[in-house]
From TrEMBL:
One of its GO terms (molecular function) is primary methylamine oxidase activity. It holds the Pfam family Amino_oxidase. Its cofactor is FAD. FAD binds at residue 275. Keywords: FAD, Flavoprotein, Oxidoreductase. Its EC number is 1.4.3.-. Belongs to the flavin monoamine oxidase family. PANTHER family: AMINE OXIDASE, PROTOPORPHYRINOGEN OXIDASE. The keyword Chaperone does not apply. This is Amine oxidase. Residues 49-512 form the Amine oxidase domain.
Amino acid sequence: MQLISEIGRYDDRSFFAKDPVWINPKNPKDPSRLPDGLEKKVLVIGGGLAGLSAALELADRGYSVYIKEKYSHIGGKLFCKPVDILNQTFWIEHGFHAWFHNYYQFQDIRKRLNIDNNFKTWDVVNYVFRNYKPEAIYSEGPYPLNLFGIIQRSPNLKLTDGIKSFLSLPDMVFYDFDHINQKYDNISFIEWATQKKVPQDFYDIILKPALSVTLNEPISFSAAEMLAFMQIFFLTNSKSDRREVANVNYYEAILKPWTDYLIKQNVKIQLDTEVLRLKVDEKTASIIGSVDSNGDDTIVYDWVVMASEVGAVKKIFANTLKYYQNVPRVNEILSNNIKKYLDTMKVAPDYKVLRVWFDKKLNSSTHDILETPDFSPVNLIAQYHLLEKEFIDWSNRTGGSVLEFHCYTWSSFFTKNVNDSQVWDLISPTVKQIYPEIFERNFKVLAYHVNSFENFSSFEKGLLKGRPFVDSFALNKLNGIYLAGDWIRTKYPSALMERAVSTGREAANQILLKDNVKQVPLLVVNNKGPGI
Ligand SMILES: Cc1cc2nc3c(=O)[nH]c(=O)nc-3n(C[C@H](O)[C@H](O)[C@H](O)COP(=O)(O)OP(=O)(O)OC[C@H]3O[C@@H](n4cnc5c(N)ncnc54)[C@H](O)[C@@H]3O)c2cc1C
């Protein structure tokens, strides 16, 4: 088995760059697998990245793992499913994703699954604004000169003003994870920027674009969470803002190799299986199983990893609490120890991802991916016929194009429940301001596909202190259950896909420690900032 040691290399030799750090196993002398003949059953609830990550580590160490996934497809917010469109089957994702350099856990999994070739670099990130010239942002040179290079190349910012702005932000430059979390979770990132007197152009061009792609309401996004995002995505080393994208659909690129690997390890993946409530052993107050949409699951599990998204976890626990309301010991633990975590957690506003098949292509100078921070409800446009193989092939055959439009916090702009057929018409006036060519050259819409969801984690200000860690429920007397997902709190800077994968691995580590099996090391972003 290949572990992450080989990506622990650090190739930014700049004095200022901060190395990622290892969280080493607490039990390095324990065996690396369960003893032969000992069976331990683990139920993983949710087949997103967090659940898949926990399943991978546990299956590799000899556990019998059962994944229950509500939908007919695996992957959670990274899902990719076949859809028949224009007499062809296309594999369509939940929405375009980017993988960042500091995603150390994800890189390790990519190496173990041997899927690195399914990714390509996304070198230059292009932005359009309403009141500024377009920006093409890329990082070059050692840290922190790479950041000054971004400012120097900007057609909008003056180098001296940019350097002053950057250096005047000790919260970013002298970043300290614990201190920032304590100090800034009760204010929004926008309030923080106002307090720090961040110059408007620096805010609009450098900071606001990152905020606009969080799928949360920008106005209330926690300053502490955003400052952590900044460390992960842009600071700490010269490569942190380097992104990669998949060159084939996410099923082929990631999910099929991952599930094939798990199946080879005898992991049972039950799709179309929604967990409705948990089963609790009343004597030990341990979670031992679940009742799901297929009925009562009679297997008694040794451990449960709860890896569904926050809205689903709230629902599962509400049902469990209702079921055990007359069982004093369970009722007391659930209502006094667990409910407080779930009551404070929130789901971010609803969003839509629209993919449109057109009969023509935009001119070749347009960018494959364009971020549009000033053009809500359109936050990002990806030209899939320039990104993924099956769309490239379709475009080569037909001369058409396939564009994906990300529309976050949809109901801040339009009625929540609009028909899919109305989505293009509603966003067209905004798209016309970004790509007038679509309308001037009368592009014909040949087909469309809409994903509408309200399942994203909220990172609103004030939630951090109530956010559970992987082991918070177990530490609060509910035994046998660990949590994983992008909404779970970590002790190091971590976000989104990387947080999902890291917490999945952390949940597995809790189980391994209890069973005296050697834990998996984690390589994570440094808690301290660059320190210039
Ligand atoms: C449009 C879009 C773009 C994004 N872009 C990026 C990006 O560029 N970079 C990045 O890092 N992140 C990005 N993200 C975020 C990223 O997708 C998530 O952070 C990550 O996939 C979350 O994984 P998870 O396993 O924590 O949760 P999820 O993926 O939500 O997985 C939870 C799973 O639990 C299942 N489930 C729910 N209820 C039940 C139940 N009762 N029983 C059984 N199963 C259940 C769900 O169906 C789901 O499969 C993006 C997200 C979206 C939506």
